[in-house]
Amino acid sequence: MEHQSMYLTPDIKVSSYEDKLSKTEIVFDHHMLVWFIAGETKIIQADTCYTFKPGDIFLVPRNQLATVINYPTNNQPHKAVVMHLSTVRLRQFYDGLDIDTSLGRTGKIRRFRNHPLLESCFASLLPYFELKELPADIATIKITEAISILRLIDKDIDSELANFEQPGRIDLVDFMERNYMFNMPLERFGYLTGRSLSTFKRDFKKAFDVSPQRWLTQKRLELAYVHFTEKKLRPAEVYYQVGFENLSHFSYAFKKHFGYTPKDLIS
Q1: How far apart are CA 41 and CA 78, in angstroms?
Q2: Which of 71, 123, 171, 213 is deepest in the core (most CB within 10 A)?
């Protein structure tokens, strides 16, 4: 995978992928505001799938599990400009403001299409990428501008951006049933449910009466079976959607669990 990122500052970058497809399962530590320039991106969350194309602008909230799949198109690399809206920056912005966050966080991706104000804000960064330099004071101005535009065009955005709480202890069974297809380290699952790794393993065993790894493998294979039998998808389309890293390992695990290969099932 040929991936390149050019950082103007720790919070502003242009990201480019050259290969046919790249897949990442990730939890962002910061809100990510993205201007999509070329290629295609699919972002899969627990109950939603988004597809973004050139010109789209969208916000990916922090602390949300997602599978991100990038595709170059028309012989052009996948390319996007990204702003990290960090908690530090947002605290500075909201300091002293009287904000109503009673609506609470949704954790959902917010799409702004090619809104002219946001597009202008992002486009103004492109000359700095040519110069490979962006002074810190200008970077602060640009991020402040982006936050201000978001608040202007999305009246509910404060409930997301001005919420600085860390994940608290939540219902483990409900969370895992909705997010088992994401191939995350157990430490990350623990963090997102408000638990240390040892507490996560203990609570998981108590709730499911099986180890996390065995349960995750079984749930992912059962989901793959549904994709094959109901959605008529091919193995190459399924393995990464259900949390496996490569096709051969997926096929081996599928046969071990069901007694036949994916090809046997769909042939």
Answers
A1: 8
A2: 71
Locate 165 and state its tokens: 């709480």
Rounded Cα gap, residues 225 and 137, in angstroms = 53
Contact 250, 244 (CB under 8 A): yes
Pick the CATH number of 172-266 from 3.40.50.300, 3.40.630.10, 1.10.10.60, 3.20.20.240: 1.10.10.60
Q: Which residues contact 200 (CB under 8 A, 6 or more apart)?
A: 172, 186, 189, 190, 193, 212
From the list 50, 47, 46, the residue with the least C-alpha distance to 36 is 50
pLDDT in tens, 208-241: 999 999 999 999 999 999 999 998 899 988 998 8
CATH of 3-161, one of 3.30.420.10, 3.30.390.30, 1.10.1900.20, 2.60.120.810: 2.60.120.810
pLDDT of residue 138: 95
Contact 191, 135 (CB under 8 A): no
Element (H, E) at 228: helix 212-230
In angstroms, the CA 100 to CA 3 distance is 40
Strand order in the sheet with 12-17: 3-9, 12-17, 78-85, 31-38, 57-60, 110-111
Token pair belonging to 230: 């109901």
pLDDT digit string, tens, across residues 30-56: 999 999 999 999 998 887 889 999 999
